[in-house]
């Protein structure tokens, strides 16, 4: 049995076991996110609200990758843990993540002969972030990235297929073996591990306050089942994600982003930042909000960077390339915004489709225009056919020569675009990631405005700021949530002992 099939079987088995063992109705959900559909839908079972206790060692707020990694790590370190999620389903933005997880010096890179180094990963991330990343957090991230890949592998979450994203010179974006999107696979795998460890997961459970006494955290207030309840804990891990779905907050912090669409799930509203600020936490880089260059505008659907990483090009309405497609996101977004009209087409061929499984989802959503020949495609998307053909010819020559004289692209050039049918997706930038957030140290402790750790308060993932500086590199957020999620779990469990 393949590992993924084994996963699904175990998941179904564990879910059925819990239902029978508990003999009570639990909240069930059949996952329907894109990525889960790509990597295999699975049914999830959540803990009944009546089972919420008055006290735990560690309360994890949020069930994305950071929260679930923290909960698994805290549990494995001996703590009594609970996960509280305000949405009716778990996964947050993590479930939507597509390209993969960046990591350096991994066993999977070694197996492919990719000579990467943590120092190179550090330098390229720092460059992508405009030199404004917190150096200690970034160092911790890169030095623990390979360990995070191994940790996931040990949990049955194997990210062995490697591609690239903008701003990276080496292939270091790890994704599932079949090239499918990382998010659904990761969420399913982490969920399964929580179930296996009997960690309770409550959905529709919105944390509205972190309680504290004499400066130390004592628990949370949570709205669940129509009631507000106070639960005590010595430690709270905030893993509530970013605020990319609160477009008013986005526009207030960065007025230039008024009117943009967002790729984020509706629960990404910055709750954890407000909760931490109420306890005296400092924030950092709040105005640094990333727009992603390739978002389909009618559906706000993200077209993953892995499509360009595997060789796609961008063309303007004249059928011409206009940018190094694997520049960092801020630069590619700016190049699209400078176009007249200000949209672009992602162009790829059938061979690329086989390398990026997420494209099947874009097709099922009706986002992809497909034709047997370049000329027919050009006609359908209304760009000059001769120009589009010339653009592809020049590009394929650049791939053969490994020399993109026009725009200096150096990565995502392993394959020519010459296997019909040909495909196009119309895109423009959309709000995607909030780099700023709560200030933490390398122990994932939340810092107050004097730089002191707030006793018992931890945070990890997109709710925090500092790791990415003013521009996040594709693939680095998933690295962030796993590396710092683990750390928040381990440290909070140590604190409560
Ligand atoms: C479409 C898309 C594609 C992406 N692709 C990639 C990629 O390929 N690689 C990469 O590195 N990054 C990617 N990212 C970014 C990355 O997915 C996120 O930054 C990351 O998953 C955030 O994880 P998290 O655990 O911090 O937060 P989330 O996964 O967003 O989880 C936070 C959870 O907390 C819950 N919550 C919020 N407030 C409360 C509250 N008050 N009480 C209880 N629960 C609460 C939320 O509902 C949510 O479920 C992508 C993002 C998007 C939107």
UniProtKB/TrEMBL annotation:
SUPFAM superfamilies: FAD/NAD(P)-binding domain, Succinate dehydrogenase/fumarate reductase flavoprotein, catalytic domain. It holds the Pfam family FAD_binding_2. Residues 57-478 form the FAD-dependent oxidoreductase 2 FAD-binding domain. It comes from the Bacteria. Keywords: FAD, Flavoprotein, Oxidoreductase, Signal. Its cofactor is FAD. Residues 1-23 form the signal peptide. The keyword Disulfide bond does not apply. The keyword Flavoprotein applies. NCBIfam families: flavo_cyto_c, PRK06481.1. Belongs to the FAD-dependent oxidoreductase 2 family. FRD/SDH subfamily. This is Flavocytochrome c. It comes from Streptococcus oriscaviae.
């Amino acid at each position: 049995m393949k590992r993924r099939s084994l996963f699904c079987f175990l998941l179904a088995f564990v879910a059925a076991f819990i239902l029978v063992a508990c003999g009570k109705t639990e909240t069930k959900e059949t996952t329907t996110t894109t990525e889960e559909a790509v990597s295999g839908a699975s049914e999830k079972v959540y803990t009944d609200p009546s089972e919420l206790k008055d006290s735990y060692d560690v309360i994890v707020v949020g069930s994305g990758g950071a929260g679930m990694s923290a909960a698994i790590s805290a549990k494995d370190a001996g703590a009594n843990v609970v996960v509280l999620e305000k949405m009716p389903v778990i996964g947050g933005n993590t479930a939507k993540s597509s390209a993969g997880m960046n990591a350096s010096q991994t066993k999977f890179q070694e197996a492919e002969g990719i000579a990467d180094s943590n120092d190179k990963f550090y330098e390229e991330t720092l460059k992508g972030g405009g030199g404004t990343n917190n150096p200690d957090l970034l160092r911790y991230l890169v030095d623990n990235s390979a360990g995070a890949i191994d940790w996931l592998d040990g949990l049955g979450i194997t990210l062995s297929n490697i591609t690239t994203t903008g701003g990276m010179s080496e292939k270091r974006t790890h994704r599932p073996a079949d090239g499918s999107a990382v998010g659904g696979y990761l969420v399913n795998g982490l969920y399964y591990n929580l179930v296996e460890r009997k960690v309770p997961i409550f959905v529709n459970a919105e944390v509205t306050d972190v309680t504290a006494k004499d400066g130390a955290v004592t628990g949370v207030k949570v709205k669940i089942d129509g009631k507000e309840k106070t639960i005590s804990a010595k430690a709270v891990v905030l893993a509530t994600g970013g605020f990319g779905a609160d477009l008013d907050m986005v526009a207030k912090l960065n007025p230039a982003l008024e009117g943009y669409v967002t790729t984020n799930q509706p629960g990404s509203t910055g709750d954890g930042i407000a909760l931490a600020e109420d306890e005296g936490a400092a924030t950092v880089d709040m105005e640094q909000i990333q727009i992603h260059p390739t978002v389909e505008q009618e559906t706000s659907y993200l077209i993953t960077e892995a499509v360009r990483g595997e060789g796609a090009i961008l063309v303007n309405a004249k059928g011409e390339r206009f940018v190094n497609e694997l520049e960092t996101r801020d630069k590619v977004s700016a190049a699209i915004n400078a176009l007249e009209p200000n949209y672009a087409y992602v162009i790829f061929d059938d061979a690329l489709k086989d390398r990026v499984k997420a494209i099947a989802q874009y097709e099922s959503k009706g986002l992809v225009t497909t034709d047997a020949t370049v000329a027919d495609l050009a006609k359908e998307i209304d760009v000059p056919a001769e120009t589009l053909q010339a653009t592809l010819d020049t590009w394929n020559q650049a791939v053969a020569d490994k020399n993109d004289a026009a725009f200096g692209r150096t990565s995502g050039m392993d394959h020519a675009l010459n296997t019909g049918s040909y495909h196009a997706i119309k895109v423009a930038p959309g709000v995607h990631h909030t780099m700023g957030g709560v200030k933490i140290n390398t122990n994932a402790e939340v810092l107050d405005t004097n730089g002191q750790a707030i006793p018992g308060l931890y945070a990890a993932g997109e709710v925090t700021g500092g790791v990415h500086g003013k521009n996040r590199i594709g693939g680095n957020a998933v690295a962030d949530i796993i590396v710092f999620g683990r750390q928040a779990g381990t440290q909070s469990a140590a604190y409560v002992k």
